[in-house]
Amino acid sequence: MNLLDRLTVDMKEAMKNKEKQKLSVIRMVKSALQNEAIKLGKELTEDEALTVLNRELKQRKDSLHEFEKASREDLAEKVREEIVFLTVYMPKQLSEEEVAEIVKETIKEVGAASKSDMGKVMGAIMPKVKGKTDGSVVNRLVQQFLS
């Protein structure tokens, strides 16, 4: 079952169970996916849908950070719930050790030796870990291994 189908099934379930917050999040994500499909002029692949889902999740994490910084616990709690709903649709996240292993392998593959090769390494790694880990973790590990 693809992501849009899963969202539709979950949306119906949320309606039946009167889960307003969950329903709202699912509708926002479906809308974002449909907007992206219209923009691209074709049906989204799983990879493209994952990119949109990742973007939605990142926006909420950024909002959460800002709300916590501004001591707006009421808004922060709402965004935390949205993040929980969204993570259900994300693929299994890689542990930091697994990411480190991928980083080491990729550095060997591309023959990187210094920080000047960082762009080359990041370009090779990101497609491998797309949606499975945060880009900042990858960035930090690449810098660590190239220094």
TrEMBL record:
Domain of life the protein comes from: Bacteria
Signal peptide feature range: none
One Pfam assignment: YqeY
GO molecular function, one term: carbon-nitrogen ligase activity, with glutamine as amido-N-donor
Transmembrane segments: none
SUPFAM superfamilies reported in the protein's UniProt record: GatB/YqeY motif (SSF89095)
Protein name listed in UniProt: Aspartyl-tRNA amidotransferase
Organism of derivation: Anaerobacillus alkalilacustris
